[in-house]
Amino acid sequence: GQNIDQPTEMTATEGAIVQINCTYQTSGFNGLFWYQQHAGEAPTFLSYNVLDGLEEKGRFSSFLSRSKGYSYLLLKELQMKDSASYLCAVRDSDYKLSFGAGTTVTVRA
Amino acid sequence: TAGITQAPTSQILAAGRSMTLRCTQDMRHNAMYWYRQDLGLGLRLIHYSNTAGTTGKGEVPDGYSVSRANTDDFPLTLASAVPSQTSVYFCASSPSETDTQYFGPGTRLTVL
């Protein structure tokens, strides 16, 4: 099984940068995903890492270190619309996702 | 395209009653999934189907059943609902089991 930890809540100011950490313990690893979920809506795919290193996609970047069981999602130039929950999910050797409880990010003006 | 649709959007159900949550996708994805999302616990996999005609159990399958008669539809049935099944249920699909999963809008179910 998987044990996935991420902070419950984070608050940041509009225009700032926020880094959401995710640590995991896994019996098999086949990639790590980040999803964004606005309140009352479905999770939407943000990023995928399977190799160590940084993946950049516009204002969002995701980093993975497999040896440390660690990932982070970096949100730059924060906008009010970035207020949401961010879900870290690890895929196991059977290609099944296990999700963390999510990090609620609040962006303040 | 519609992508993934779920019905109903929300439902209040008396304990002991049965209920089928519907999920339909028009992307011809082979793999489909059912998750429940509870506060503080994150999304947990209930059942999955890697291709039409096959299903498998996820992390929390007890009290739920699924079928996959064709590629597009993946209904989730609660045979006799209990209050602990109060949750938000998300259906997801992916082109294959090795691809990224995409989620439907969810069904909010309250069992009283």
Could you provide a short overview of the structure?
The complex is a heterodimer of chains A (109) and B (112). With 109 residues, chain A is mostly beta strands. Chain A has strands at 2-5, 9-13, 18-26, 32-37, 44-49, 53-57, 60-65, 70-75, 84-91, 97-99, 103-108.
Mean pLDDT of chain B: 96
Strand content of the residues of chain B, in percent? over 45%
Low-confidence stretches of chain A: none
Strand content of chain A: over 45%
Sequence of secondary-structure elements of chain B: EEEEEEEEEEE
Question: Would you mind describing this structure in some detail?
Answer:
Chain A has 109 residues and is mainly beta. Chain A contains no helices and 11 strands. In chain A, the strands form 2 sheets. In chain A, strands 2, 4, 5, 9, 10 and 11 form a 6-stranded mixed β-sheet that branches. In chain A, strand 4 and strand 5 form a beta hairpin. Chain A is globular, with a radius of gyration of 13 Å. Chain A starts with a strand and ends with a strand. With 112 residues, chain B is mainly beta. In chain B, the strands form 2 sheets. In chain B, strands 2, 4, 5, 6, 9, 10 and 11 form a 7-stranded mixed β-sheet that branches. In chain B, strands 1-3-8-7 form a 4-stranded antiparallel β-sheet, with no helix packed on it. In chain B, strand 4 and strand 5 form a beta hairpin. The mean pLDDT of chain B is 96. The interface between A and B is medium-sized, with 19 and 19 residues.
